[in-house]
Write the structure tokens for this entry.
Amino acid sequence: MSDATLRAIWIKRMHGGPMDPAAEADLVAGRGIVGNADQGRRRQVTIIDEERWASVMRGLAGALDPSARRANLMVRGVRLTDSRGRILRVGACRIRIFGETRPCNNMDDALPGLKAALSDDWSGGAFGEVLDDGCIRLGDPVAWDEEG
């Protein structure tokens, strides 16, 4: 089987605020991550791909911490490219992917050229809505739900 896992969790207390690392997070269906600024909209959770982030950093000769992307979750072992409409299972919870997360101008403030690099082929990650209540933890398995 796959060794795809949840590698990082960040919770954003307020818009524009710091991204707090967490070992676990409570998810609420239709709302998002408890304590996160983005609640109840289509963009309840944002997700980045660890391998893609590393590739972007190599391409820019950068060494930014992935929290600079300002996503909530970082996964390893699943490709987010063209995942619109799919359901990603993280531990016991499911997230319906609504689309590609487009990078904002703040990315170039963190590292010149980062916005353009993240604009290519879902490199900026994906966003979606939480379908199940539950707790997710670092190291939880991650997989596409083929029923979705």
User: Anything to note?
Assistant: The chain has a mean pLDDT of 93.
